[in-house]
Design a protein that fits this description.
Layout (H helix, E strand, L loop, with lengths): L1 H17 L5 E5 L8 E3 L15 E5 L28 E5 L1 E4 L6 E3 L2 E10 L14 E5 L25 E4 L21 E3 L2 E6 L14 E5 L3 E2 L12 E2 L2 E3 L2 E3 L5 E2 L2 E8 L17 E3 L10 E5 L4 H10 L29 E2 L87 H6 L8 E4 L5 E5 L28 H8 L5
Antiparallel strand pairs: 1-7, 2-3, 3-4, 4-20, 5-6, 5-19, 7-18, 8-20, 9-11, 9-12, 10-11, 12-18, 13-14, 13-17, 15-16, 21-22, 22-23
Organism: Pestalotiopsis fici (strain W106-1 / CGMCC3.15140)
Keywords: Signal
InterPro entries: DUF1996
């Protein structure tokens, strides 16, 4: 058996070296449970301040409100399975809106994968330059994609549609999306895949070990003239000629990365009744359609390590960690977590009366659209409060109408920070809470940079004479299914490998 395994692993390098005209790929997975950190942080779109909405972040621990140059290489830990990958990967989180009382509960991450595709090309595929910042998607849109419900990564075949949701179901009768939907009142079906489409599906995803999945493809042509930080202009999609994907002359062909975020939506199945018209999930920016799904990436790879993987490995779905002779080896840290650099008094798991950042619901039956995108925080925070906290202690206060706890500042000098507790702290309102609580008109936010030093404080304190705290019981988590069971088979059935 050992000889067979060794022979198989050694063949990965041979296969990759011989497959210059074919796609090769390897799936990066992550250690531990959940995100490396989470919060209203986006150093690409909202550097140095609070982002408008909540994100879940994977990767290196030197993440903060600003990430510059080779900062990520100094991370003291990473939750990527490859030790020399200290990149950061993030996307907006998903919330369940209770149809009975309108409260919001964050949907736990089931797991996340990042595919590294090395496409057939006449170019040399090179490792990401350290510090490259990439953003894909549109956080502001509530409009249906022009391409419809399908996926399209070829700029010559029509409008790019690189964002989808996948929802494996035991039966597609009724279908996940209304037949002939134009996207204005519900999502649109992928004509090639019953289990996928644009926007949130209308029925529970009950496929085995495969709940609702957010799918995000990134372009793979980097323009060095635009530079590492110009995320609006530094990336483009390759053109396809004779089955090869090539970048413009003078551009750098980097790996094509693809996020899969599996959300534990089945734990909410008993809390809503599908009616074929509405569904209860929303993105953290208030988007009830799902059309504004987006993703961010900052490169923090050791260059020789990634280049070795590009040149020698075709591990596929068995995982990048099975690639032979990886420089630096595999990660042995299963508990790489830091506290969010944005300090908010906010329960991660309990029901909230408003989304973090006080983002209103928009899209479909809620109408309108959001113009906040990923910009800095607003001046209003109905339903929750955010507190300023010094680095040595956590000051407790509570807002009206929600379960809260105080989140301590993370030490982000390249070392691990204290992970935020997932259990609410049931404390009586204090005198400080009465004088500092926000009552629909303001909140405080402390922002710290990568050194752990406060760089910006937004103050808008309203004096209250009375505070009422209403405790909301947490939803009991569902029994966790085996994460990767049937993973390869699901992709083959869905046609994923035909992208």
């Amino acid at each position: 058996m050992k000889a067979t395994t060794a022979g198989f692993l050694s063949s990965l390098a041979t296969l990759a070296a011989a497959a210059q005209s074919e796609r090769t790929f390897a799936v990066l997975r992550f250690d531990g449970d959940g995100f490396m950190t989470e919060g209203r942080v986006d150093p690409i779109v909202s550097p140095g301040t609070a982002a408008s909405h909540f994100h879940g972040i994977m990767g290196g621990s030197s993440f903060g409100t600003t990430v510059d140059g080779d900062q990520l290489l100094s991370s003291s830990c990473t939750n990527a399975k490859i030790k020399n990958d200290r990149s950061n990967y993030w996307a907006p989180e998903v919330y369940f809106r209770d149809p009975n009382n309108g409260t919001f509960t964050k949907v736990p991450l089931f797991y996340m994968n990042v595919y590294y595709f090395f496409e057939p090309t006449d170019d040399d595929i090179e490792a990401f330059p350290v510090g490259l910042k990439m953003f894909t998607g549109d956080a502001k849109t509530r409009d249906p994609p022009a391409f419809g419900g399908g996926s399209n990564l070829d700029p010559d075949a029509g409008p790019i549609q690189n964002i989808q949701f996948t929802c494996p179901r035991s039966s597609y009768d009724p279908p996940s999306y209304p037949t002939d939907s134009d996207g204005t009142t519900a999502g649109m079906q992928d004509p090639q895949n019953k289990g996928a489409g644009a926007g949130f599906p209308l029925y529970p995803c009950d496929g085995y070990a495969s709940p609702l999945r957010a799918d995000i493809h990134f372009p793979s042509c980097y323009n060095p003239d635009a530079g590492l930080d110009d995320y609006k202009n530094n990336m483009a999609w390759p053109t396809i000629t004779n089955f090869k994907q090539n970048c413009p002359s003078g551009w750098i062909h980097v790996p094509h990365i693809f996020f899969e975020l599996y959300w534990n939506t089945p734990m909410f199945d008993d809390l809503w009744t599908p009616d074929g018209k509405t569904q209860p999930f929303v993105l953290s920016n208030g988007d009830a359609t799902g059309y504004s799904l987006h993703g961010d990436f900052i490169a923090g790879w050791d260059l020789p390590t990634l280049q070795t993987i590009i040149d020698t490995c075709n591990a596929g779905d068995i995982g990048m960690d099975k690639c032979p002779n990886i420089p630096g080896g595999l990660n042995d840290d299963n508990d790489c977590k830091i506290s969010s650099p944005i300090v908010e008094i906010l329960s991660l798991n309990a029901a909230l009366t408003a989304l973090p950042g006080d983002n209103p619901l928009t899209g479909w039956s809620f109408g309108g659209s959001s113009d906040s995108g990923s910009s800095a925080s607003s001046s209003s925070a109905t339903g929750y409060a955010t507190a300023s906290v010094d680095q040595s202690s956590t000051s407790a206060s509570s807002s009206a109408q929600e379960t809260t706890y105080a989140v301590s500042l993370a030490n982000l000098d390249g070392k691990k920070g204290e992970a935020a507790s997932t259990q609410p702290t049931a404390a009586l309102p204090t005198e400080a809470a009465v004088s500092a609580v926000a009552n629909n008109a303001g909140y405080n936010t402390v922002v710290i940079d990568g050194t752990g030093i406060p760089v910006s404080t937004v103050w808008d304190i309203v004096t209250a004479t009375e505070t009422q705290t209403v405790w909301v019981e947490e939803t009991a988590p569902a029994k966790r299914q085996e994460k990767h069971a049937g993973h390869i088979a699901r992709h083959r059935r869905s046609g994923h490998f035909h992208h």
